[in-house]
Amino acid sequence: TQSTGDESMIIGKYMVELYDDKTEQFVSKQGVGMHVEIKDPDKKQLLSKYYQNEGQFTFTTHIPGEHFICLSPNSTRWFSGGNRLRVHLSIDVGEHANDYKQIQAKEKLSELQLRVRQLLEQVEQITKEQNYQRTREERFRYTSETTNTRVLWWAVAQTSILLLVGAWQMRHLKGFFEAKKLV
To answer: How many whole angstroms separate alpha carbon 171 and alpha carbon 183?
Structure first.
């Protein structure tokens, strides 16, 4: 799982290696790939795709929260041979997902222009993160206030029941003592 704010770009890079019994090492082989499935916090599927043994996947979050990333091998040899796989996974979120050298070459930016762009994107990412944290804090505050209100009403109900039972017991005992002529 990866918890992010809304409108954040996420890039995942992976490489799958299969254990070779002859060389007793993990090697990259064609034919062994990955099925990548990504779900948002509402369990809606954002991506479901088969990839080769090495590659990357990209998606943009549209709602804040934990996004679920599931990688599974697409090899049938997994079940027959008991082969071991090694998966290298790198996830970049927000401005870290951008390749600034490629952007600089594509848009012909000077070093200063590129640095300003990086700083602007970092400020934007910080703003998104602050908004996400504010949303989480509001949700937590609402939950806390609701819980406190319920606890208060539960205490009032318990006190009321205790007072009613006490009044009933006193009335019942008074009637009992009067019937036995002890009072």
So the answer is: 13
Distance CA 9, CA 176 (A): 77
3-state secondary structure of 25: strand
H/E segment holding residue 168: helix 111-179
Residue-wise pLDDT tens for the chain (183 aa)?
556 767 777 888 888 888 877 888 887 777 777 888 989 888 898 888 888 888 888 888 888 788 888 888 876 554 445 567 888 888 887 666 667 777 778 888 888 888 888 888 888 888 888 888 898 899 999 999 999 999 999 999 999 999 999 999 999 999 998 888 876
Which tokens is 124 given? 């934007």
Pairing between β-strand 9-20 and β-strand 85-93 as defined by DSSP bridges: antiparallel
Residue (of 55, 67, 50) closest to 6 by Cα position: 67
> Hunting for tokens 């916090």 — which residue is that?
41
* Cα Dmax for the chain: 107
